[in-house]
Amino acid sequence: MRVNMPRKSGILGAGELGIFLVLVLLIGVVTLFQPNFLSIASLSNFGARASWFGIIALGVVFQLSMGEIDLSTASIYGLTINLAAILMVNFGIDPWVSVVICLGVGVALGAVNGILSTLFGIPVIIITLGTLSAFKGITLIISGGGYIYGLPREHPFFVLLGGTPLGIPMVIWVFAALTIILSVIYRRTRYGFMVRCIGSNLKAAELSGINIARVRIQTLMLTGFLCAVSGMLTLAFFSTADPNLGTGFELLAITAAIVGGTALSGGRGTVLGAALGALVIAVISSGIVQFGITANWSIFVTGVMIIAAVALDATIRRRQGK
Amino acid sequence: MMASKPSEASVLLWLGGIKKRYGGIQALAGVDLEVRAGEIHAVCGENGAGKSTLMKIVAGAEQADSGSFEFEGRPVFFKSVADANRAGIAIVFQELSLFPDLDAVANIFVGREPQRFGLVNRKAMEARARPLLSGLGLDIQLDRPIGNLRIADQQLVEVAKAIAIDARLLILDEPNSALNAQESARLFAIVRKLRDKGVGILFISHRLEEVLDLSDRVTVFRNGHKVSEQARSDVTMTSIVTDMLGEKDLGQTAQRRVTPVSGAPDEDECLRIDGVSLGTDLMDFDLVARKGETIGLAGLDGSGLLSIFDLLFGRTRASQGTINLPNGQSAPRTIPGAVRAGIALIPGDRRTEGLSLEQDILSNLNVVVAGALSRFGSILSQAPMAEAAQRQAESLRLVFDSFHQRVGSLSGGNQQKVVIGKWLEADPAIILLNDPTRGVDVGAKKEIYRIIEQQAQAGKILLFHSSELTEFSQVCDRVIVFYQGRAVGEVAGPQATDQVLLEAINVGRVADRLIKDGGEAVA
Predict the structure, then answer these.
(1) Residue A114 gets which letter from DSSP?
(2) CA distance A196 to chain B (A)
(3) In a 3-state reduction of DSSP, which class is residue B276?
(4) CATH of the domain at A192
(5) Minimal Cα distance from B350: which residue of A?
(6) Could you give the CA distance from residue B218 to residue A193 in angstroms, rounded to a whole number?
């Protein structure tokens, strides 16, 4: 017997190829009618839009893969942005220190979700239905419901992380780097392996001695961290804080992951696919605006696209199953 | 010609030449059965003998391929359980068929709720349900969701549901598997009352004592055939066992040599269980298991032996007593703790408990070593995982195309080998086997016996349970018999034939001549 081990070759596996082609097709169509869509300015614009929730979507891939859905991501994102701004403006704390505190808060809020879920044996989707409002409520309370101005824009934090190295916004660079790092974590680490095992058969994973609760809490902490990272980059980019920033991001992040090829049923996912999925969603909303159609259509089109992507995936899997 | 049709008016149900095939398996090869009004007719047989299939056909849950079926003198054909219910036949299924979120009253009348002005008449339902439930000794809140009740109470509600139909024929398929002795007695009193009112009763139980206690007539099935049908006064426990197992199995010699075990039992590296109890599920259990021993745990459902697996695998904690593992540790508190302590559990239900069917062979074989035990560190490289898979595939003689093949695409026997392989790669000290050959073919069974023997020779401690009694003598050095939460005796491997065990697990006693020297005292 020979060990027969075909490895995925190249960056794109079969799972990501489909969503990549969709992305290329969409960009092609938009560019055909609006040639300036391919300008650096325009690409930076839609790339940054994709990155805000795309960074969160990278964590959602781990959640869905272990069979969990987290609805509180956008609330964690918004809370860290406003908390950081308040620490800098009202308390005069150094921006770097504020950022480190808020990254820690993001991780802690994720841990709260995981611990509550484990402690009471309630699915994460239910717990986060609650923390979605609770975290958002904290944001509104501490911010007083209004914008926060007067951030120290000359500080290196805003200059560096809000900057545009080589003409491209920093958030896009970070998004790209995180996509690569998390892709490796997902595919090549013990943690990623356990995530997939749990999502594929929770009972079998439990009876194989995997500590389900620990992996679940780790995954929610990871997602909380990514929400905070995205939040800090958003703050650096806009230099103001708004309690309503990120509204709807939790669903966009889940959509990006699913459209990118992560199974809602667990066990199977792709980090790179989620990143491409985020880009596809951003192209659709940017593209629709470019065509002069009202932006309201983009939400409709996004919805249709989710159904199309999931239906296609189910059809392919049914064929393979037979 | 089929069996001649009896003409007596008292015949309630008459079946002639019933055949039923599932794929390649002939579950019923042309059987006859007759139930008279006012009799309790017990049907016995080993797993797979065809008795449950026949009950399902009578109750309308399955349809026969061919044969005659008459009820109260008229030919009938039931397309569904509802059809049979309307005709006057009710069944209490082995698996509970209740709606856990509905209360007892709603469950009893589901699908035929009494109505008033087009609305469900709750008062009428409660008025009818109350005497039924109290007759069964059920003291429950009528409006509590049934899922919150004890399993025993749920089973009694299931019985109440069948009685509420006012059936002329009542089928009880292991109706008391979750009931204790007192609850069973109450149920049987009601069954007798129904019989005296003229209801015909078909009764299936694996507990032969109950069969002898309750029935008026006893029919035995084997491999889809009816072997015997006799009045209660003409049968004995031994004659039923003989009919169930067949002549060829009598006096079958064990195929396994008892492994000579060296060293005194108080030596280190033993698994020692002292006076362990788990509520009333398991009471005051002692065991000393030496390296290289394969110990069988035989008993009926609910006899408590599975509690030992749960205790050793960290799924529950003993209410009393101590457990000492070979490495000197005490009982694990969690499953991950048990796995780290070198304990493996090979479940029979591999599809739900053993494997990630959508994942590939490589992942499944490495889930314990790479996942739970972290033997390959935090960053997984493919090489050690492929080596592990290769090692197990070779020693288990796994038949497959590629390590990246989905485990779900393998045959049952090969799937089970993957479950075994993922544990053997962890090199455990204690292996718990819970029905490891369930649903695998004969060839794969032989292979699994071979693997068990290899592991024993490698110095593991193996605890083995099977729903097939013939397996014990083939793999075990000794077999401990469980009855109602207690270990009631021990039989040496070669003597632990299916006949001996079937009798022992039913009467809760091991025949004196078989008691192993120095074995556990008979309770």
Answers:
(1) H
(2) 9
(3) strand
(4) 1.10.3470
(5) A204
(6) 55
Q: Is the ipTM of this complex over 0.90?
A: no
A94 domain-assigned: yes
Phi then psi dihedrals of residue A95, to 5 deg: -50, -40
Cross-chain CB nearest to B403 (options A5, A194, A206): A5
Question: Contact A201/B357, CB-based, under 8 Å?
Answer: yes
Q: Is residue A9 part of a domain?
A: no
User: Residue B492 is encoded by which pair of tokens?
Assistant: 């040496």
Q: Which domain holds residue A233?
A: 43-321
Instruction: Tell me, yes or no, whether A80 lies in a domain.
Output: yes
Does the beta-carbon distance from B353 to A200 stay under 8 Å? no
**Interchain pair B379, A205: CB under 8 A:** no
Query: Does B309 touch chain A if contact means CB atoms closer than 8 Å?
Result: no
Contact indicator for B19, B66 with CB cutoff of 8 Å? yes
Q: Do A6 and B372 touch (CB under 8 A)?
A: no
- Number of H helices and E strands in chain A, helices first, is 13, 0
Length of chain B: 523
Domain count, chain A: 1
Cβ contact, residue pair B367, A207, below 8 Å: no
| Residue A244 in domain | yes
pLDDT in tens, chain B (523 residues): 344 444 455 889 999 999 998 777 788 998 999 999 999 999 998 777 888 889 989 989 889 999 999 998 899 999 988 889 889 998 887 666 788 888 888 888 887 777 777 778 888 888 888 888 888 778 788 888 888 887 778 888 888 888 888 889 999 988 877 777 777 888 888 889 889 989 999 998 877 888 888 999 999 998 888 999 999 999 888 888 888 887 654 444 444 555 555 555 555 678 999 999 998 889 999 999 999 999 999 998 778 899 999 999 999 999 999 999 988 888 899 999 999 999 999 987 888 888 988 889 999 999 999 988 888 888 888 889 999 999 999 988 888 888 988 888 888 888 999 999 999 999 999 999 998 988 777 778 888 999 999 999 999 999 999 988 888 998 999 999 999 889 999 998 888 888 888 888 888 888 766 655 444 443 3
